[in-house]
Amino acid sequence: MRGLLRSANANERSAKRFSPDRVFNYTSLLLSKEDNMLYVGARETLFALNITDISRTQLHRNVSMSVCFILEDRKREECSFKGKDLQTDCFNYIKILLRVNSTHLYVCGTYAFSPICAYINTSDFSLVRNEMGEIVVEDGRGRCPFNPEYKSTAIMADGELYAGTVSNFQGNEPIIYKSLGQGTALKTENSLNWLQDPAFVGSAYIQESLPKGNIVGDDDKIYFFFSEAGKEFDFFDNTIVSRIARVCKGDKGGERVLQKKWTTFLKAQLLCSLPDDGFPFNIIQDMFVLTPSKEAWKSTVFYGVFTSQWYKGASGSSAVCAFTMDQVEEAFNGRYREVNRETQQWYTYNHPVPEPRPGACITNTARAQGISSSLHMPDKVLNFVKDHFLMDSMIRSQPLLLKRNVRYTQLAVHRVQALHKTYDVLFIGTDDGRIHKAINVKDKMYIIEELVIFPEPQSVQHIELDDEKGLLFVSSYSGLVEIPLANCSNYQSCGECVLSRDPYCAWTGKQCSNIKHAPTKRLLNFKQPLLQSSVSHDTSEIFIILIWYAGNISYYYQY
Q: Locate the Sema domain: which residues (predicted)?
């Protein structure tokens, strides 16, 4: 980096904060466009905030989970007696906060290492009670972790909950579990070691049955993203690998084999590595699944942030990699791996596989064979998938962005229509409370803005993006911050506006403005020369990195 550094006062980047006294660990965010609310789960408490302004106290409501769930001293004492820290572990940390339907939310908390779940009526933001006036509570095991530090994920699809977590107090029984709804509850088979000490970072529901009436007749799928011990690698140290796993939404388990277990569970390795020496960033920290529309699911891009368990040059480096749906489908349609039970070594399975294809969803091909449900699958198919759940092919990618001495924790992606082209803009959180705003241009990533979100260094725990209102919500241990996706007026001149390379911004002839707020007929006169523009070669790679903190901005001109 070389060039000029200039500082200026700024009041335009209007951050709004929500941080009430004695509330900590803002671990769950749910953006609800249906009722214009942001639901927030923290330690012992739930909040309903108006998206318009999260800082206005008269616009928020809260539910105390400790009072309503009656977290008595007895429960905390039991937690402490089992060896957990009374001051940190033995509280109710909200880990799941999802919308069940148009009227209710589903919430789960660790509840002093005894997880429970409940329903919330969104009309008055109250916990649902039965005829006796008692709060309706469900066992949270298999849905919510016991330990608040454990990484887990959950997603709701048509009223059914799909969770990746652990199912016991010790934390050594990982599970991918489907519950709620009218269908059969399904889970992974723990005795078959389908999961190896996973750390779940995300999940996604992709409607691959669309468009309706298509020739394949495939099923919708639920994807899970996690890192785990890579038992297929015969190394001295415990090698960690990143995974993508999938199950079919219509899976009902097997009739005789794999009863009440997944019959479609498959997993593959995600490899984000350097092109020159293959150095791997093998630990996935977060994944954002960008799907243009429900029916355009084949154009899905999986953006992930990765770190490495090894050091190279500088510790704490991070990478951003992207994977396409074509890559994912190719891996899951490829060869399987098999383990030798005596040597515990894995190898490629090169023999014929039974039909229909093991681990595949029910398609028109299977229906033509008289198989309309996983309950009708032949035993030989289910016995095969029990032991051949790992795909042979790695899903490979090279870093679009590599940052040394930075540890990325979270990300959100927004596909932006600029004046002449569409760009993917990434908002990436760090472990010290910053947000990097980066733009993907021709498979190269450029950081165009750095925001210091929290006054004290602390890890970004969650990012939620409202593309309609142009807002970003960022949570941490101490609070929640709302910021606009762009503040074009911070750029005071045509040069600054152009060199920012911000796809949200364009020069009107008088000022730098957000193109989303401009009348369509005026856009023809706007200037927005991004990398595809006709600017001279000497300046086409010049960027302004805007660093914003506490009302001041600094511009770094980067060549």
A: 1-485
